[in-house]
Amino acid sequence: MTTITQRRAPAGEETPRRDRRDRRDRRGLRRSTLIGWSFILPNFLGFALFTLVPVIAAFVLAFMNWDSYNPPTWAGIDNFVRLFRDDDFRVALTNTVLYAIGHVPLTLALSLGLALLLNQKLRGIAFFRVAIFFPYITSLVAIAIVWNMLFDPTSGPINQFLHAIGIANAPGWTASTAWALPAVIITSVWRDMGYYMVLFLAGLQAIPREYYEAAQMDGAGRWRSFWNVTLPSLRPTTFLVLVLLSVSSFKVFDLVFVMTQGGPGRATLVLSQLIYQDGILNGEFGYSSAISLVLFVIVLVVTVFQFRIQQRRER
Amino acid sequence: MKRSLIAAGAAAAALALGLAGCAGTGSSSSGSGTAGATTLRVAVWNLQQTPEFGALFSAFEKANPSITIQPVDILAANYEDKITTMLAGGDTTDIITVKNLTDYAGYAQKKQLVDVADVVKSLPTADIPATESYKTGSAYYAVPYRQDFSVLYYNKKMFADAGVADPENLTWDEFAADAAKLTTGDGADKVYGAYLHTWNSMVQGYAAAQQDKSYDKPDYSWMADQYKLTLGMQKAGTIMDWATANSQQVQYKDMFEKGKAAMVPMGTWLIAPLLADTKAGTTDVDWGIAPIPQLKSGTKITTMGGPTGFGINKNSKNTAAAEKFLTFAAGPEGAKAVAAVGIVPAYHSDEITKQYFGLDGMPSDALSKTAFDPDVIRPDGPTGTNAAAIGTILNQEHQLIMTGSSSVADATAEMASRVKSDVLHQ
Questions:
Q1: Of B56, B106, B128, B367, which residue has the fewest beta carbons closer than 10 angstroms?
Q2: Min Cα separation B13/chain A (Å)
């Protein structure tokens, strides 16, 4: 800073004019900053009011006991101590992780496969794209009710089909503790794959044609060019899909809640439902905030981990 | 770039969600009426499908022209959660309809309602036995206006066709035997001898009421016999499989009205829709009610049930008018209004019973009248401070038993250990 002023000092005449221009520039900059702020203000206000403040409140509440009505009392780390002894929490955490392990790779693979399949110039291709996307815009409650009927262990079409092809011991699906979670995963994969397929389609269409032509010149077959051209070029999209999928898997609530309500027993109880159950239903907002804090940390760690890997790859 | 896009998208979604959530409560926060007149806002569920509210409100307005009732309509399935949120948010809706004793325990514990012991004092409590259910120490945080209890609905035509005698004073074993005789058909045409709804109270509630057991004690071995009976019927195919009823989200009303089941144990709240649907011509089922089956024959009729009541919000600014409404609803005048639409009022008198059985379409045989007057009504689920938490555990283990994922002995032992460690923290 000092060196600059020293160097500029000799050119005395120019200084006042430049100062004026600087000031004008700065005013302009401030104006455009203000305009920029005013553009995001409505959005930010909503975000602050309905997301940021509640999130911060939940962080504080995690260290308190609060029934949502009487004044909260300080609990220190009691809620977290209780958490690690709570059987419900252990069950819900396991189920949530299992759900993510099933949901993320399956949806990723299927949506990529569908995108590759539908990334062709064919007559009526738009129809198929819309058909695959449709479940995503269908009411979740309707999906849950219909799939519940499909999964009915005795009279459901799925098990009747399994019986017809000679499988005597068809799974009990939503009525069995072992198969309820797979049933929910199947339904959620079916619902979500259309959405992620659209993301992949956008990614695929951004890959320059020349890459494939060059690969073809080098004698690469379809498999080779998929492996060496498509996949690497899709990496940013794959990364985005992976992050979105992981976050949504860990937060899963709606589908599970409508389909099985966490049952039978606690076979499909997930963390978000436990938060809802302990907070809204049992009125233990401090304890449920502690659970949501743990869920937040899990999602954060998973996401940061994914970003790290992505950065290392890009380097 | 992409990261900020995601963030912006997330924020927008959060905003949309927040606004949507806000709009729900916003509709119920208008102020009270014009000078001279008072407007009472009453939280109710499914106003259109629940005729008792309309009947009660218009009768009250007629008797008190200076007070207007403004219902705050809430979807029945979300009622408990919504009220919890409203009260926590300082909502000033004057009167809260107390749906069941489990919810009542929550409001009372959090002291969210006004103590209405004075209202209770002014009521003919000897004729309103359900008032006692709301006694909390020396305080009452609500008064009852209806008192439901479980009865056995039966299809008279099916009984006659199968040559089975009307279900008079059945034991549970006789109930199972009758169900076997009444089960016919196969596949989609199957008619079940009985339908037991998926609720855990359908097994646990009867066991608790008839054996006079408390849910607070972490020992649930007394449920074993009732489960054995229910599982036996499920295995024999005389009741619908729990898993099927659950995955198809079967409506108990449809099972009975469409003649898919000959007997349905259910609360008296089913009477009003049965009368309404018969009148509307959507069902022609020839029905009657009988006392709920008992453990042994020749004993007192013990059933389960619970009151529905009104409480006054602590944040209400019209407490005096609200107390007036509570007195009206729980007393003879309110009883007359709700009985007229087929609801069992909390206030009992010969006159009301006569009026009730005089309703168009109401069965008038002696058995139905006996069913209407049980000797003992015990709560249909856990009550008190830990009601909700205990209820969750009992329901989860119920599902495991009914789907065959867990044996009765294992599940009842698990109930005990979970209630002990997770709820009572022993």
A1: B367
A2: 9
Q: Is A274 helix (H, G, I), strand (E, B) or coil?
A: helix
Averaged over A118-130, what is the pLDDT? 87
Mean per-residue pLDDT of chain B:
88
Closest chain A C-alpha to B280 CA, distance in angstroms: 28
pTM for the whole structure: 0.80
Report residue B18's pLDDT band, with 50, 70 and 90 as the boundaries: very low
Tell which residue, B388, B296, B338, has the closest CA to residue B110. Answer: B388
Question: Contacts of residue B15 in chain A, CB cutoff 8 Å?
Answer: 43, 46-47, 50-51
Tens of pLDDT, residue by residue over B303-356, are 999 999 999 999 999 999 999 999 999 999 999 999 998 899 999 888 998 999
Chain A: closest CA distance from residue B81 (Å): 6
Considering only residues 123 to 182 of chain B, which have any Cβ-Cβ distance to chain A shorter than 8 Å?
A: none
Answer whether B400 touches A (CB < 8 Å).
yes
Q: What is the mean pLDDT of residues A272-297?
A: 90
ipTM above 0.85, yes or no: no
Q: How many CB pairs under 8 A join A and B?
A: 118
**Residue B329: count of CB within 10 angstroms of its CB:** 30
One of 3.30.300.20, 1.10.3720.10, 2.60.40.2150, 1.10.1710.10 is the CATH number of A85-314, namely 1.10.3720.10
Which residue, among B230, B295, B271, has the nearest Cα to B360 in the 3D structure?
A: B271
C-alpha A225/C-alpha A228 separation (Å) is 5
Q: Which residues of B touch A177 (CB under 8 A)?
A: 400, 403, 405
Domain ranges (residues) in chain A: 13-74, 85-314
pLDDT in tens, B195-230: 999 999 999 999 999 999 999 899 999 999 999 999
